[in-house]
Amino acid sequence: MAKQEDLFKNVVSHAKEYGFIFQSSEIYDGLSAVYDYAQNGVELKKNIRDYWWKSMVQMHENIVGLDSAIFMHPTTWKASGHVDAFNDPLIDNKDSKKRYRADVLIEDYAEKLNQKAQKEIEKARARFGEAFNEQEFVTTNARVMEYLGKKKEILERMARSLETENLADVKALIEELEIADPETGSKNWTEVRQFNLMFGTKLGASADSAMDLYLRPETAQGIFVNFLNVQKTGRMKIPFGIAQTGKAFRNEIVARQFIFRMREFEQMEMQFFVRPGEEMKYYEYWKNTRLNWHLSLGLGKENYRFHDHEKLAHYANAAADIEFNFPFGFKELEGIHSRTDFDLKAHEQFSGKKMQYFDTELNQNYTPYVVETSVGLDRMFLAVFSNSLKEETLEDGSTRTVLQLPSVLAPTKAAVLPLVKKDGLPEVARQIIEDLKWDFNVAYDEKDAVGRRYRRQDALGTPFCITVDHQTLEDQTVTIRHRDSMQQDRVKIEELRSIINSEVSMRNWLMKM
Ligand code: ATP
């Protein structure tokens, strides 16, 4: 655990030191759970967004993009259910005065039971070796059955209580399980209360005519209210999707995990409109397709898992998370939700405008069902960044810090380094940059010894360093150094573009899906 905490601390400090992420308004001591993306962070974030957009929008004939406004008519949020139901159950500890999400305290307890069961399973696997049958062990071993049974029972009871708004029972559960404040160990809890996560603001100048607005807590509703506009003007035929990326805002109760849980964050969402009754087929399809998109980045299959929801949101008939192994354990990275026809029907009812589709094949009008994929761009950033940050011991015993980002996402694709600052080498390096910058984000660096420059680029995640030396002047060759293997090859300047391209092109990465 201590090691994990150290790793997470390294992630946060590396992100700051190398110009990826700063605390917002730092000179005023920052604003809690709000962050700014710095010169390198903004490039990495943009590359993740582009990688998503390419795969979701441009590679699908039947998915189109949208960029709807953050401000929406306030009735939108009545219709969507957010005004009445976008709440988190909060609980305060009377001694420490710390505030927690009651559901998260219970889920963490359940996860501990799960870990105990997994430990037993691993022990048995080691004992029985090849002959081990996990399925049989899990269904017959008394201890494992007890851990997993208890976990299930707890989560089901919580889901029931939250669904029926029985907050007293949520508190009773916390007390029965003897859950203590994770920071202080105190079990002196207040009642559980519901807390709405939407930020309110006002539109208009004078106090009497001002209109109460919300900052959108998800981008999805901008898609739903534009459903017919896009369908008609784009002559879209079901099944089809509308995708958008953009800011969303939530007044999170507990926001202590860097960019994992922010109050202002960015989502990448796609709503896929299907015939009623076909939603489960597409739900499965999108679960797999989205997992494959994540896997294409090569962060390791073992770092992902599905988590099927026991407690469904008011609009869903099936929901699963793709969880990622963050430095603080497996947590939600993306949600895949079968949202039924809830949203379109609600908007039809509240606006009085028909939100139906005429299916020419069936010769029939209906309200489409919706399957949503929703991933947090900042959580993707954290997943990629934390997984890529490595401390390596080299053959000569020295260490290096390297950010092994998937090269398709790296902020800078190549750094061009003149070996010395004279003899015409900088001029040649600049010429190389002039040529490469049309295709790639490239950097020039002439300060310090070349070894130190390599290390600086390693820490920034730059896949290639190109060094111009005296031989370059004679034969138009340079050395190209690979970030991960540190191998150096002598190549012709004219080959550089194709070497870099074959490593960083989205085409080659997305082909792996
Ligand atoms: P959680 O259970 O972690 O609060 P959620 O289930 O409320 O998340 P959704 O409403 O499904 O999240 O939102 C879709 C995605 O948006 C999430 O999978 C996550 O990646 C991202 N997201 C949600 N809330 C935040 C936040 N406060 N900060 C950063 N990303 C977020």
From TrEMBL:
CDD domains: GlyRS-like_core, GlyRS_anticodon
Record keywords, A-Z: Aminoacyl-tRNA synthetase, ATP-binding, Coiled coil, Cytoplasm, Ligase, Nucleotide-binding, Protein biosynthesis
Molecular-function GO terms, alphabetical: ATP binding; bis(5'-nucleosyl)-tetraphosphatase (asymmetrical) activity; glycine-tRNA ligase activity
Principal location listed in the UniProt entry: cytoplasm
Localization (cell): Cytoplasm
Protein EC: 6.1.1.14
Family annotation (InterPro entries): aa-tRNA-synt_IIb, aa-tRNA-synth_II, aa-tRNA-synth_II/BPL/LPL, Anticodon-bd, Anticodon-bd_dom_sf, Gly-tRNA_synthase/POLG2, Gly_tRNA_ligase_bac, GlyRS-like_core
Organism superkingdom: Bacteria
Domain Aminoacyl-transfer RNA synthetases class-II family profile: 177-418
Coiled-coil stretches: 107-165
Catalytically driven reaction(s): tRNA(Gly) + glycine + ATP = glycyl-tRNA(Gly) + AMP + diphosphate
Residues holding substrate: R101, E218, F265, E266, Q267, M268, E269, E372, T373, S374, V375, G376
Gene Ontology cellular component terms for the protein in this record: cytoplasm; extracellular exosome; microvesicle
Residues binding ATP, per UniProt: 250-252, 260-265, 332-333, 376-379
Any one GO BP annotation for this protein: glycyl-tRNA aminoacylation
Pfam entry (one): tRNA-synt_2b
Protein's job: Catalyzes the attachment of glycine to tRNA(Gly).
UniProt family annotation: Belongs to the class-II aminoacyl-tRNA synthetase family.
PANTHER family according to UniProt: DNA POLYMERASE SUBUNIT GAMMA-2, MITOCHONDRIAL, GLYCYL-TRNA SYNTHETASE/DNA POLYMERASE SUBUNIT GAMMA-2
Assembly notes: Homodimer.
Name of the protein in question: Glycine--tRNA ligase
